[in-house]
TrEMBL record:
One MF term in the entry's GO annotations: metal ion binding
Keywords: Electron transport, Heme, Iron, Metal-binding, Transport
Annotated ranges, domain Cytochrome c-552/DMSO reductase-like haem-binding: 78-279
Domain of life of the native organism: Bacteria
Gene3D superfamilies: 2.60.40.1190
Organism (species): Candidatus Entotheonella gemina
Record's protein name: Cytochrome c-552/DMSO reductase-like haem-binding domain-containing protein
Length: 313
């Protein structure tokens, strides 16, 4: 079986390196017009033996990844290519994600000291993120928020700062509904009029906590600190490594987690999903943030995962 990634010891309060913030200012992306029309692309997950299970460390030296079929899709906002691979055992499924990124952004909403008011305020740094969005209502629905349809989805949410150090991705569910919901964002759909968008974390404890500081302890401080996730929030192990202009992220999840808020995956069946390099939240570009496309993400291609059954012969 794959080796579980142990939670890191929470770091002590300290300054966020200026170099980490500068890497983000160097990567000012703009919305890129579509290079092509969206397509339907099938990703086939290859069955593997327990002895071939990859270690979830973002390094991907295992031979299994050289044998697994790969597809290339595009990110909605940046139109950068995203390469996906998948393999599975009788109990678990594994993914390898690779995409270009000129600079790694591994801090998020750091606290910056305001000399005039003598308080800490959020800075404009934003972490790199990657999202899998899985339909929980079958394969005949549009998962994008740009032309939204009512749907429910299972969200696997890797965050370069908040979850990566613990070796997990956040596990959430998402609902787009005709019915009004408290704390929901209202969307305007060409076909459905007003819809209401809401995303909620699965039951359990997330892989990060927040800290507020009231006395001066340095010019900049982290806001988020790693911890061991629990419950359904801990279903997805994921580890990313940035090297030479590329992020590589490995993922692992049980085919059937036993939690009611998760997608059940069964060999022999096909599942609709989408991916994005940024949060799929239907928001607008924030020009004052170091990553202006943060939260401007959406799904682009219509992706189908087919979990191949083991050859009986």
């Amino acid at each position: 079986m794959a080796q579980a990634v142990q939670a890191a010891t929470p770091p002590q309060p300290g300054a966020v390196p200026a170099s980490a913030l500068q890497r983000q200012t160097d990567e000012f992306l703009e919305f890129v017009p579509p290079k092509r029309s969206p397509q339907t692309i099938e990703l086939v997950s290859m069955p593997i033996a327990e002895t071939d299970v990859p270690v979830i460390d973002g390094v991907t030296r295992e031979p299994v990844w050289t044998r697994a079929a790969a597809i290339t899709t595009l990110d909605f906002a940046s139109q950068r290519p995203i390469t996906l691979q998948a393999v599975h055992t009788a109990e678990q499924i594994f993914f390898r994600v690779t995409y270009p990124d000129a600079a790694s952004s591994e801090t998020h909403k750091s606290w910056g000291w305001d000399l005039r008011e003598s308080i800490y305020k959020p800075m404009p740094d934003r972490e790199d993120m990657f999202v899998f969005k899985w339909s929980l209502v079958g394969n005949n629905v549009h998962l994008g928020l740009n032309k939204a349809e009512p749907h429910r989805a299972d969200i696997w949410f890797w965050k370069a700062h908040r979850t990566n150090s613990t070796g997990y991705a956040d596990d959430k569910w998402q609902l787009v509904s005709d019915d009004f919901q408290a704390k929901a964002k209202e969307l305007t759909s060409p076909a459905h009029g007003s819809l209401f968008f809401r995303r909620v974390g699965d039951e359990g404890l997330s892989a990060y906590s927040e800290k507020q500081f009231y006395e001066y302890q340095g010019e900049t401080l982290p806001k988020y600190y790693p911890r061991q996730p629990q419950g359904s929030r801990a279903d997805i192990r994921a580890k990313g490594v940035w090297e030479a202009g590329y992020w590589t992220i490995e993922w692992a999840r049980k085919l059937q987690t036993g939690h009611k808020d998760d997608l059940v995956l069964i060999p022999g069946l096909t599942y609709l999903f989408g991916v994005s390099c940024y949060e799929i939240a239907g928001d607008k570009i924030h020009a004052k943030w170091f990553q202006p496309l943060y939260r401007a993400g959406d799904v682009f291609d219509r992706l189908l995962l087919r979990i191949a059954e083991k050859d009986a012969s």
